[in-house]
Amino acid sequence: MESVIRLENFYFAYNKSELVLQDIDLEIKKGSFTVVAGPSGAGKTTLCKAMTGIVPFYMGGRYSGDVQVLGESTKGRRVSDIAMRVGLMLEDYESQLVSLTAGEEVAFSLLNHGFAPEEVAERTRKALEDVGLPGRESYQLDELSGGQRQRLLLAATLAVHPEIIVLDEPVSAMDPDGAHSLYELLYAIHQRYGTTIIVVEHRVDYLLPYVTDMVVLKEGQLVTADTFAAAARTMYEDEELRPLVPALWQVKLGVERRFGITLGEWRTEAEAAAELQLLGFEGGNA
């Protein structure tokens, strides 16, 4: 399958710091819904910034190797040019909001990229509609809830029509209902437009119904970059990484190990219950 992002022998250290990423070789598949996982301090956020050119070309630092986005090296390219094709939402989403009203927020990035006023208006309308905020152009930002402001930032990202969207722990400040709602929205966008989605998330349970691939980091090094099923098995074998495996898959892989069987690729509790019942498991016992 065609890749949209490729890192080759990539090393990076911030100024006056030790290496944050070491010898990273990986590819992100076009049209995938990829989750980046790993313990705190593993280098996940830095990896996201490298995929968008912010590291090292905006923030500085020491690096070697190469990052290619949609077939082009990020070397010598402006971050604003990369942003036309790769949208980025950071964990501190409030810091990315710059305008007074919802309409101005979405229009801001479009105007910076030189879109004509009539196209700005139409793209703004459609982007707000896509994220469930139709007709909110005149709303002040302080009239929107935290979840709505996150959706607004996503609308501003979508309006440029990026081929890739990178999100760094976008639901860290949300309750479970808000997290499920945002990820359902992201998946709908992924399905509707074929957008490649890359999400840093330590609570992979939220993404179990949607994830296709996983990138797993540990202490700045790549543990695995594979399909979700293969990556989950690799993580399960590592005692430090096992707690990051979705709870449902911890059960699945534990049952497989104990009874020497192979179970289906569960995505919901209903799927798991149905298969276990079919195999004669009741109340957790065979």
TrEMBL record:
It comes from the Bacteria. InterPro entries: AAA+_ATPase, ABC_transporter-like_ATP-bd, ABC_transporter-like_CS, ABC_transpr_CbiO/EcfA_su, ECF_ABC_transporter_ATP-bd, P-loop_NTPase. GO terms for cellular component: ATP-binding cassette (ABC) transporter complex. It is found in: Cell membrane. Pfam families: ABC_tran. GO terms for molecular function: ATP binding; ATP hydrolysis activity; ATPase-coupled transmembrane transporter activity. Gene3D superfamilies: P-loop containing nucleotide triphosphate hydrolases. Its main location: membrane. Belongs to the ABC transporter superfamily. This is ATP-binding cassette domain-containing protein.
